[in-house]
Design brief:
This protein is mainly alpha-helical. The chain has eight helices and two strands; from the N terminus they run H-H-H-E-E-H-H-H-H-H. The relative contact order is 0.13.
């Protein structure tokens, strides 16, 4: 003898599975914004800390030029130029990421810098570079999120697309 299945018994799930699914459904409905803010802050922290070792106030340290000349030796770019570009890029892009302004451009610049560091300077540090890339690429591809100045600007310029930042 078989018991007829009612809609409630046919779809009933054990309590732990039902709880897990309920938690997953709630997490998936959470508005995107906090994750993007954390990506931006994580990337900004890494590059800000590095950029601050290269400068004193608004002046690039002499040791920074020595570092680019003697250790980094980036090809195709004179060490004096590379030192200035790297110092400005790390510090400026970190600040822009924190406030969420020109976020995709900033993340793209820092991602490019990460690739140069990986390929030409410290290829053995690929685990660090992979982590940096893991927080930069979502910003480039998906945007800075709703907790950013970019979102406000985009909403102003394109109200229909502004909600997708």
């Amino acid at each position: 003898m078989t018991l007829p299945l009612t809609p409630n018994t046919a779809t009933a799930k054990p309590a732990p599975i039902a709880l897990a699914l309920a938690i997953i459904h709630r997490l998936e409905r959470f508005p995107r914004g906090l994750d993007a803010l954390l990506w931006r802050l994580a990337a900004a922290t890494v590059f800000w800390r590095s950029g601050q070792t290269k400068v004193t106030g608004f002046h690039i340290n002499d040791t920074t030029f020595d570092l680019f000349r003697d250790e980094y030796k980036v090809p195709l770019v004179p060490p004096e130029v590379a030192a200035v570009l790297a110092s400005i890029t790390e510090n400026l892009c970190a600040v822009l990421l924190v406030v969420g302004l020109a976020s995709r451009l900033s993340a793209g610049a820092l991602f490019g810098m990460t690739l140069v560091i990986e390929i030409f300077v410290y290829p053995e540090s690929w685990p660090d570079h992979l982590l940096w890339s893991a927080v930069l690429v979502p910003i480039i591809l998906r945007g800075p999120g709703v907790l950013s100045l970019d979102h406000l600007v985009r909403r102003r310029l394109d109200p229909v697309a502004g909600h997708n930042l």
